[in-house]
Design brief:
heterodimer, A: six-stranded mixed beta sheet, five-stranded antiparallel beta sheet, elongated, B: mainly alpha, about 70% helix, globular
Chain lengths: ~425, ~260
């Protein structure tokens, strides 16, 4: 039993929802027993074990029961059926700075929060300097927390929870706080805690983080466990499901929207464009290896970006350009047909030009495509980020960055890659 | 988890309550003396000067002093009513916290009670000084801690029961404010129980007044600190039984209703 930190056995949680709550005595007398009661099953028959010192991830859609499960582990809710055994002192990070009182100073709040987490004054005395140091809020520690910025508030909350040396740490989606520097500190600290043997249960929508940090995981869907085991397998299963759903909903939206476009086909561009307008891009479509139109593309797979146009005249030596722009505003790449000595003679009417990559070098994320149709310094048409490009992986991606840099690694240490250097 | 393991949490809650209460006020801690002394002055003016209430003689044989006699009862009463009201507020106030982190529901209630208790201790100190000045001191003062200990347990239990049940039935808070008023006049704090008629329209009024738990506590406390007697055995037994009943009730309520509070808050 000692090597299992958390054991969840056929756990179910049911919330009683009442359309009208009777929580006053008068209502109970006057209107009788509540009607319209129905049960909401937040968790159904969930079982898993978390070995001591390992990190366990919970993934799933919003409303899949992840937070309810965390609250049961933290002891806030009681299970409706089944058993939960948690062996060790739990520190729950369900909300940062939840126990802070605005009138008290940061230091006083640390003691209050520590007491709520079940620590004695002595234990907090030992850690207080480390907490203040980690939070990095300087002399503000002796000011009332009501004057703190929201960033300082959550930083202090995080410091308290992780620095008080928890045996089991329960973390809800809260890492996305503070500035870049503090986020890195948080991640480093989570890794450090893991290395020291703290058992961590983690809910995160960052699958990359989950893949990096967790050993095992569970995927919940409407309270039911869908997959349990090695975190990479769990995430792969979850991603396949998400991708399938997104494709389906996009296809639906396309089917619904397609009719409208056909009915009121307009020659003028839908949004103001730059350029003289003899030729206009009408739409951009994405195609997979088989040539089928797709709603999103996958890193490393074959991919075609098809630029459809409509031209009012005959044009000679027209060049096409694309720009792939990440949602953060960074232009990742800008392939241009003239760079490859491709110029097209265009006839009036509709047509398309393809850009094909045999291995898409983009990492998962949200990108936009800008298109340009030009002729030696003259712009016919330029669309600024009109087309969305979603890059979705079907497995967890562990590499940072916006693009996957193609290349090769040494086969052995101290050996150049064959035929080079 | 036994209750003394929660001591650190309870004392932190009370420190929070005290600091939050007096931060930002000009007089700060002085308010915890100004308010009860003003109440004392008002009651003395109304009941001693206007209504000519005559206090019983002191234990040292001197004539009774109404304001001192009233103070003995008022200290206990204000502790009781502030604990019950404060406990309701404290538990509702910790609602958002209780939904995030587990801790026993009685901790904020007792924390609020502890904060009130510290103020009551100051009042008790003043009362003791006044009695010493009046030379009304005896060995029976040694019994005071026992009366107060029972009273603190009794009050904490009642406050816990009311605060927890109020989460499920929110109109309890309104009911409590009415009940406290009734209880205040039902308890011989501002009047001598001897002036209550034996029976009124067939209702045994005197018995109701004398048997109510707060009357027992107030009576016993006055006996040991003002009358300088050990109090009769019947009162001690009654007080102990009331305390046990309240404590048992609080434990039952915590066990049956305490676990699902986070869902009801």
């Amino acid at each position: 039993m000692t090597d299992i930190a958390i054991k969840v056995d056929h756990l179910s949680k049911t919330f009683r929802l009442q359309t009208e709550r009777r929580n006053s005595i008068k209502e109970m007398f006057v209107r009788g027993k509540a009607t319209g009661v129905h049960d909401f099953h937040a968790l159904r028959d969930v079982s898993f074990e978390v070995p001591r010192g390992s990190t366990f991830g919970l993934v799933g859609h919003n409303g899949s029961g992840k937070s309810t499960l965390l609250k049961i582990l933290a002891g806030v809710y009681r299970p409706s059926a089944g058993q939960v055994l948690v062996d060790g002192r739990v520190s729950a990070l369900l909300e940062l700075g939840a126990g802070f009182h605005g009138e008290l100073t940061g230091r006083e709040n640390v003691y209050l929060n520590g007491a709520i987490l079940g620590l004695s004054k002595k234990q907090i005395d030992r850690s207080i300097d480390q907490i203040i140091d980690f939070a990095g809020i300087g002399e503000f520690i002796d000011s009332p927390v009501k004057v703190y910025s929201s960033g300082m508030y959550v930083r202090l909350g995080f410091s308290v929870a992780v620095t008080l040396d928890p045996e089991i740490l329960i973390v809800d989606e809260i890492i996305a706080v503070g500035d870049e520097e503090f986020q890195r500190k948080c991640f480093d600290h989570l890794f450090e805690l893991r290395r020291r043997g703290t058992t961590i249960v983690l809910v995160t929508h960052s699958l990359t983080l989950a893949a990096e940090l967790c050993d095992q995981g569970i995927w919940l869907d409407h309270g039911r466990p869908q997959a349990l085991g090695d975190v990479a397998d769990v995430i792969d299963g979850y991603l396949l499901d998400v991708n399938a759903r997104e494709s389906a909903s996009r296809a639906e939206a396309e089917a619904a929207g397609g009719e409208q476009v056909g009915a009121g086909a307009v020659v003028a561009p839908p949004v103001p464009r730059q350029g003289s307008g003899e030729i206009r891009m009408t739409k951009v479509t994405l195609h997979d290896a088989a040539g089928a139109e797709v709603g999103f593309v996958t890193p490393g797979e074959e991919c075609t970006v098809r630029v459809h146009y409509r031209s009012a005249q005959s044009l000679r030596e027209v060049g096409f350009g694309l720009a792939f722009i990440h949602e953060s505003g960074i232009t990742v790449a800008g392939p241009n047909s003239m760079q490859d000595d491709r110029r097209y003679d265009i006839e009036p009417g509709e047509g398309f030009v393809d850009f094909y990559s045999d291995s898409l070098p983009l990492q998962p994320g949200a990108f936009n495509i800008s298109t340009a149709i030009v002729d030696k310094g003259h712009t016919y048409d330029y669309s600024d980020r009109e087309t969305e490009l979603r890059v979705r992986a079907d497995h967890a991606v562990r590499e940072p960055g916006l693009t996957r840099m193609l290349g090769r690694w040494s086969a052995e240490p101290s050996t150049p890659v064959r035929g080079r250097a | 988890m036994p209750i003394w393991r929660q001591w650190n949490l309870i004392s932190n809650f009370s420190r929070r309550d005290l600091k939050a209460k007096f931060n930002g006020t000009l007089l700060g801690w002085a308010w915890s003396l100004v308010v009860p002394l003003a109440t004392l002055a008002i009651y003395t003016l109304v009941f001693s000067v206007v209504f000519r209430m005559v206090p019983p003689p002191m234990g040292n044989g001197n004539d009774g002093v109404f304001v001192v006699w009233l103070f003995c009862g008022l200290v206990l009463w204000s502790y009781f009513s502030s604990c019950v009201n404060g406990g309701i507020g404290a538990l509702l106030g910790s609602g958002p916290l209780l939904q995030k982190i587990y801790f026993p529901a009685y901790a904020p209630v007792l924390g609020a009670g502890l904060a009130v208790g510290i103020q009551s201790l100051i009042e008790l100190g003043i009362l003791a000084i006044v009695l010493v000045i009046l030379l009304n001191v005896s060995w029976t003062w040694l019994l005071v801690p026992f009366v107060l200990a029972l009273f603190v347990i009794f009050t904490g239990s009642v406050a816990t029961i009311v605060a927890v049940m109020n989460v499920y039935y929110r109109d309890l808070a309104h009911l409590v404010s009415v009940a406290l008023q009734l209880l205040f006049y039902l308890t011989p704090i501002i009047y001598n129980p001897d002036i209550v008629p034996e029976s009124w329209n067939g209702i045994p009024l005197r018995a109701i007044v004398e048997l109510s738990p707060l009357s027992q506590f107030v009576g016993l406390f006055r006996a040991v600190i003002y009358d300088l007697t050990a109090g009769d055995l019947g009162s001690w037994v009654a007080v102990a039984i009331w305390t046990l009943v309240a404590l048992g009730g609080a434990m039952l309520v915590m066990k049956r209703r305490g676990g699902d509070l986070s869902e009801a808050l």
